[in-house]
Structures are given as structure tokens and as C-alpha cells.
Amino acid sequence: MALSDLVTDLLSGTNTRSPDTPTNQSTAETSSHVYECRNCGTTVTPETVVCPCCDHDEIVEYPVD
């Protein structure tokens, strides 16, 4: 999947595998961690279970200072 296709899917809301951050959760609460697919490195939301790019199910959390 091309990056432009992924961005289009994410912005249009058609990508159901990587849900948006819930509206009741502030950006400050999620900005101290990054969630990535261990297989391809795609950045995903904390709720993501399966990578939207490579279908890998190993999502990791990295603290960001």
C-alpha cells in the first residue's frame, strides 16, 4: 500500500483497523508514547491490534521524552 493511499484512508475514515484516538482522550495523554508495528514500523494508534499496512499483529509501545 502506498503512503498516499494510507493517508487518504486514515483521513477519510475508511480504515477500520486503526481507529482514531477517542475524543475523550486528550493529545497530552497519548503524546508521551509512540505505538508502532514491530514488523514494518508503521505508527499506529494505541487501540490498534493489527497493522493496517502489513497485517502483522505485534504492536509495540515506545516512550517518547
Q: Would you mind describing this structure in some detail?
A:
The protein has 65 residues and is α+β, with helices and mostly antiparallel strands. It has a domain at 30-65. It has two helices and three strands. The chain has helices at 3-12, 27-30, and strands at 33-37, 43-44, 59-63. The N and C termini lie far apart (31 Å).
- Judged by helices, strands and strand pairing, the structural class is alpha+beta
Span between termini:
31 Å
In total, the number of strands is 3
Mean pLDDT: 77
Number of helices: 2
DSSP helix fraction: 10-25%
Structure summary:
By secondary structure, the protein is an alpha+beta fold. Helices cover 22% and strands 18% of the residues. A three-stranded antiparallel β-sheet has the order 2-1-3, with no helix packed on it.
Which SSEs are present, and which pair or pack?
Layout: H1 3-12, H2 27-30, E1 33-37, E2 43-44, E3 59-63
Antiparallel strand pairs: 1-2, 1-3
